[in-house]
Amino acid sequence: MGVVGGGFGAGFYWHEHPKCVVTGVTDLYPGRRAALKSRYKCDKVYDSLEIMLKEAKDIDAVAVFSGAPDHARHVKMCMERGWHVVSAVPACMTLDEAAMLKEVKEKTGLKYMMAESSYYNQECIYARNVFRAGGFGELFYSETEYYHQLFDLAKVLTDKGQLCYDPGGKRSWRWGLPPMLYPTHSTGYLVGVTKERITKVSCLGWRGASKEIRENPIVADNVYGNPFWCQASIMATNQGHMTRTNVFWICVAGGERAQWFGDQATLYMSNWGVHGPVEHSRAKGAQPLKVPEYWKTDMLPEPMRHASGHGGSAVFISAEFINALLEDREPEIDLYEALAMTVPGIVAHQSAFKDGEQLSVPQFDPAKKA
Questions:
Q1: Does the global pTM surpass 0.85?
Q2: Domain 2-117 sits in which CATH superfamily?
Q3: Which residues contact 264 (CB under 8 A, 6 or more apart)?
């Protein structure tokens, strides 16, 4: 297996799976290449993905953890090389890229997985199990949110250790990133539980009233032409259900979380500093919930049964991709689930420029067999 990208890409556990060896790593920055080499105990280091694609002889699959605007292009390059791919989120940033990914996946027949952390958050695993057991009744509404104070606005031009800069001190892809182009830490809590498809969306964006916020260079001068710090939306699904989905880059809050409302039960994920997880059912009322530590179970190979980052998801993402390849099946977050989580955000961003006009969300699921 190969690993591309030594930032977030250095936080996984491919090398701990009994049936996987990391045989190549690459990043454009020497420091990150060294970190990947050390992390995955891999001696074969390439200076770029392009060189790896040309020279590597012992790679079957690759983890693509480059910058978000490069994901779709890099996935295409790797799949056309004959490699299965697990990609960081988001899967893509435009509708054209979504169509391209669908085309290349179906043409090559290779496996694709998106490394969406919400799917394997321990509380989300619990919610999915409740849903599959019918415990919610009809799950008609959800509230999903990703709140992440990305920047210190007062130091945005001077502190180049912030996420909006790359290791070389230049503006990174996070500089001015539209919130809804990074939607999957929110949408994943619906699609990843019910497998519903979001069909319509109305979204508003917040620019800020003060000069400090509204004219900050992050929103006043970015490659995306994006003026919004925060975006909030209401979405409709193909099952006639509703979801409120938010992504905020400025807020006094934090984390990725959800709450799910059914006609028989409601489940609230923990909210930092406010409350722990709560399950509220007609039969038992509202009660604090002790969520199982699924990473301690046989859901994972024994060497991978340990705590990990992003709500315990990193070991699950690592194991699921490798297991899917070994078992010759599609990963749980395959391309179609990935696009179902990603594309609504792309359309939501378009809606925000139209004062919240409700827009239809194109679907990219495989054609139904006759």
A1: yes
A2: NAD(P)-binding Rossmann-like Domain (3.40.50.720)
A3: 135, 136, 137, 138, 281, 282
